[in-house]
């Protein structure tokens, strides 16, 4: 279960402004449902859930099981929506240290040559048994032409070709059904391929093979993740109220001049989930001179860097706390005979309990300091709740963007840097 508490945000908004935004959110939800808003040809992230394809989950599961049995390392090569969702779920649900399956590494999400150099150096080191590492790679690119991903893939593919005889079994491609350079390589090498549906954009694609294959290779139950998103879809079709209220308050705050939505969590393993949210909202709402900048911070670490700014800087931000109610941890504070560090007052308390009080205190302080706060609470960190979270935010994004009257599903602005870069690189 995820609870959304908007009370500490709504108190900053006048009743009339909230009601106006709420009416907009209602109409926006109808546009999503009736498929008559801008970019409605991109609503495939809903069809996936209204008409689930269990055969694909089966296929992904069995390939992932085979890879888990043989791989020491699994590389996810992609950028933006082609890796952020997988990373968000994997980081949220995997142990901090060590794993019983392959190590998941990432490439193709930047252009650091040093990173690639060091990555290859690491792949060439023997595994824990002193043997050569068994490496698998999943290249993920809807367009099949994104420079960061394509370049890293070229280097890693060539390295794998030199190293292994069976690269057509070690490299899996996730791309569009047709077109793009990646489809040419698939034809040439016979790499196994998963298709990204045409009507699902990158940032809405985590519940397609884009996210699900890496997530399954990480040993996470993709059925629980996927089917809980399906349940959330059904629940919100029936009763969209939580999303309407959330979108309304966010929109009313935007209208009131809030320019930043700071996503914060006190659980470091959710840092990448905030990164996924950043792209989902940022690429969807930031257009036609509109939108709130989606920022992220991980507390309490960042309370010691950004906390001052949030508490007393310009009052132009709202904050969204992502909270987890119960954690599986047993670290408890023990009393010491001589209380030199003065911590005996915390005797018997768990770190989670102390961390939760830090969250409560921060929420209170920021709210009192003039920051409207939304609080999202997940009872636990598990695949079900993360699945629910994913659909909740996908729908919120669409509804809220329609309130702003922007097309949530395109990203024309991203092309500008590419044009300049390609010109400088001399691409014809
Ligand atoms: O999957 P692709 O086509 O490589 O694109 C990766 C990312 O790049 C963008 O298209 C922006 O350029 C994102 O929207 C997308 O998630």
Automatic annotation (TrEMBL):
UniProt-annotated catalytic positions: 283 (proton donor), 418
Origin: domain of life: Bacteria
Broad EC category: isomerase
Pfam (any one): PGI
SUPFAM superfamilies (UniProt xref): SIS domain
This protein's pathway: Carbohydrate degradation; glycolysis; D-glyceraldehyde 3-phosphate and glycerone phosphate from D-glucose: step 2/4; Carbohydrate biosynthesis; gluconeogenesis
InterPro entries linked: G6P_Isomerase, Phosphoglucose_isomerase_CS, SIS_dom_sf, SIS_PGI_1, SIS_PGI_2
Reactions catalysed according to its record: alpha-D-glucose 6-phosphate = beta-D-fructose 6-phosphate
Localization per Swiss-Prot or TrEMBL: Cytoplasm
Keywords: Cytoplasm, Gluconeogenesis, Glycolysis, Isomerase
Coiled-coil boundaries: none
Gene Ontology MF terms: glucose-6-phosphate isomerase activity
Task of the protein: Catalyzes the reversible isomerization of glucose-6-phosphate to fructose-6-phosphate.
Name of the molecule in the record: Glucose-6-phosphate isomerase
Species name: Fodinibius salsisoli
């Amino acid at each position: 279960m995820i609870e959304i508490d908007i009370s500490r945000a709504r108190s900053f908004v006048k009743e009339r402004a909230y009601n106006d935004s709420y009416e907009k959110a209602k109409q926006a939800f109808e546009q999503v449902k009736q498929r008559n808003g801008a970019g409605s040809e991109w609503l495939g992230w809903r069809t996936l859930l209204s008409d689930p394809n269990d055969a694909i989950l089966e296929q992904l599961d069995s390939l992932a099981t085979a890879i888990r049995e043989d791989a020491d390392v699994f590389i996810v090569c992609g950028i933006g929506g082609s890796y952020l969702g997988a990373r968000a779920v994997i980081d949220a649900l995997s142990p901090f240290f060590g794993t019983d399956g392959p190590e998941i590494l990432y490439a193709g999400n930047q252009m650091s040559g040093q990173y690639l150099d060091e990555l290859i150096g690491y792949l060439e080191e023997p595994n824990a048994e002193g043997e050569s590492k068994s490496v698998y790679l999943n290249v993920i690119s809807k367009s099949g032409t994104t420079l960061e991903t394509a370049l890293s893939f070229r280097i890693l593919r060539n390295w794998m070709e030199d190293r292994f005889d069976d690269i057509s079994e070690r490299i899996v491609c996730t791309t569009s059904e047709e077109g793009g350079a990646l489809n040419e390589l698939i034809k040439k090498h016979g790499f196994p391929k998963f298709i990204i549906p045409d009507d699902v954009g990158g940032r809405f694609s985590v519940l397609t093979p884009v996210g699900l294959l890496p997530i399954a290779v990480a040993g996470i139950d993709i059925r629980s993740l996927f089917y809980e998103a399906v349940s959330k879809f059904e629940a919100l079709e029936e009763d969209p109220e939580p999303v309407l209220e959330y979108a309304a308050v966010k929109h009313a705050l935007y209208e009131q001049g809030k320019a930043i939505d700071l996503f914060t969590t006190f659980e470091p393993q959710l840092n990448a989930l905030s990164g996924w949210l950043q792209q989902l909202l940022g690429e969807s709402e930031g257009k036609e001179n509109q939108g709130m900048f989606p920022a992220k911070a991980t507390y309490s670490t960042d309370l010691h860097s950004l906390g001052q700014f949030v508490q007393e800087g310009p009052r132009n931000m709202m904050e969204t706390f992502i909270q987890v109610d119960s954690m599986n941890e047993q670290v408890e504070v023990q009393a010491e005979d001589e209380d030199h560090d003065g911590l005996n007052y915390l005797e018997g308390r768990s770190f989670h309990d102390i961390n939760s009080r830090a969250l409560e205190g921060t929420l209170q302080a920021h709210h009192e300091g003039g920051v409207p706060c939304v609080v999202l609470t997940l009872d636990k960190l598990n695949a079900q709740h993360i699945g629910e979270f994913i659909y909740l935010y996908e729908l919120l994004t669409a509804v809220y963007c329609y309130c702003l009257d922007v097309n949530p599903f395109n990203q024309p602005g991203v092309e500008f840097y590419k044009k300049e870069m390609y010109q400088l690189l001399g691409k014809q």
